[in-house]
Amino acid sequence: MSRDRFRRKKHRQTTEAETAVTYRDRASYAMDAQLASLASAGDDAAFTALVTRFQPAVFRWALTFARDPDEAEDITQEVFVRTYRQLGDYRSDGPLEAWLYAITRRAALQLTRKGKRRARLALTPAASPTRDVYITDPGGRVDRERAATVIHQLFAGLPRRQREIFDLVDLQGLSPAEAAERTGMKSVSVRANLFKARKALRESLLATHPAYGELPR
Amino acid sequence: MTCQECLSELATGSLRELRADSAVMAHCATCPDCGPLATALREREYDAATLLNNLRPMSNPITVAERAGELARRRRVGKVAVFASGVALVLTFWAALFTTGLGRGLMGLDGSGASRLSTEIIPLSCLSPQQAADIINPFVRSHGSTYYIGHSGVAAITVRGTADEIAKSRELIGQFETRASCNTSLADRIREIQKAVEDASQPREVAPPATTVAPPAGDLVPPVKKQ
Predict the structure, then answer these.
(1) pLDDT band, residue A130 (cuts 50/70/90)
(2) Highest mean pLDDT range out of A203-207, B152-156, B164-168?
(3) Nearest to residue B57, comparing CAs of A96, A68, A153?
(4) Looking at beta carbons, which residues of chain A come within 8 Å of B48?
(5) Which of A213, B62, B163, B208 has a CA positioned 20 to 30 A from the CA of residue B15?
(6) What is the ipTM of this complex?
(7) B-interface mutation test, from A50, A71, A209, most B Cβ less than 10 A away
């Protein structure tokens, strides 16, 4: 009898937790949709609120696609330019976050393609910066340099999809199903990409193990 | 669990979901090779996640929003300008085509196109159709122009071409049709044909009867009928 009561209590707690999440999400979606509606109607204050709310998330997503934090800043700016222009197209039936993520992906890919073309120009001496932009924030500069190193170490050798999925699941903590929903990929593809990305990234460390050579490939 | 099983699990499994009571962690707790490796892998991913997730953009969101609005407006104007330029370019192109002979020629509005072709039969009294074709051939050359020669013996040639080409063909054929040499040769041919017809219609002569050979005068042998 006490066991049944315990189960019922546990079930009730789980249901309450799920309901709470749903309520919070709905409230959040409603607020986002309201902000988007106001911003698309020309309310600059609402758009500023929207940017303030989503800028860190967009910047974090952009880090996955960029080579360094500076490029991620450029991608973030581009994302909000496109958001400003396309807010009228946003339908409130889905979360604004997923819509912004799709814009971030597209903007990042286009800027990366442009960046490759501009890379040749950047090699000229006239293109080098004349002053250090982080001179007022040495701490931020160290963090950014470390982030650039991490991005290079983790992502440089991975294909774009594997990099994206690994970042979403293993670094940002989304479930494979959530990652599939956000990227528009099939769940099976997400798992396959995740599998390959993990294997590629951990290979160098695992190679130090004496039994690594006997591992079936 | 063996080291190989542990390694294969560490190679592709989720390190965040590894629980302390799992078989992998139990093995790593006792294995001197796998333990540090698992720790190093988890630390590396944890550090990377922490660093990237805690990194904040340096730009001010208000500045980003203002700049986004300004850039979006500028792009909208740019888009309109590009569209207008494109329309103007197309209009200029077509205007240039129509004002120059090239465009009119391409459109068939200068009388040289297929829409201005006409067909006409030129009767021949002297020249044969083949001869007429040889004469007009260099002058019927524009796109779609041609001539037809009948195979049933009709003394005529059919010309399809522009008004200029048909007039030129008519003029050339007319020049050759009125020549005396052309008429003479035709008359000669008619005469030859008539003679051939007459020859063919005359009855053939009967063959002469068998002749006897007279013997030499000094020969006494009586004449013998030739068998």
Answers:
(1) very low
(2) B164-168
(3) A68
(4) 150, 153-154, 171
(5) A213
(6) 0.72
(7) A209
**Placement of tokens 């009730």 in the chain:** A12
Residue B121 pairs in a beta bridge with: B158
pTM of the shown model: 0.61
- A170–B44: do the CB atoms touch at under 8 Å? no
* Res A101 pLDDT > 70: yes
Contacts 24+ apart (CB under 8 A), B14-21: B14/A169, B14/A170, B15/A170, B15/B41, B15/B42, B15/B45, B16/A170, B16/A173, B16/B45, B18/B42
- State chain B's mean pLDDT as an integer: 80
Burial annotation B16-31 (CB, 10 A radius, 16+ → b, else e) = eebeeeeebbebbeeb
Residue, of B127 and A108, whose pLDDT is higher: A108
Give residues with Cβ within 8 angstroms of A169, minimum separation 6. A175, A176, A179, A190, A194, B14
- Beta carbons of B161 and B169 less than 8 angstroms apart: yes
Which residues are CB-contacts of A175 (< 8 A; sequence separation ≥ 6)?
Answer: A169
Q: How far apart are CA B102 and CA B111, in angstroms?
A: 13
Pairwise CA distance, residues A161 & A182, whole Å: 13
- What string of DSSP letters covers A182-212? HHT--HHHHHHHHHHHHHHHHHHHHTTSGGG
Angle at A211 between CA A207 and CA A215, to 5 degrees: 80
What confidence score (pLDDT) does residue A192 get?
93
pLDDT at residue B81 tops 90? yes
Comparing C-alpha atoms, which of B54, B36, B46 is closest to residue B14?
A: B46
- Which chain A residues are closer than 8 Å to B10 by Cβ? 202, 206
Strands (E) located in B43-199: 118-123, 146-149, 156-161
Distance CA A76, CA A60 (A): 9
Residue A199's Cβ-count burial label (10 Å; 0-12, 13-18, 19+) is middle
Q: Is B192 on the interface with A (CB under 8 A)?
A: no
The total of other beta-carbon atoms located within 10 Å of residue A75's CB is 26
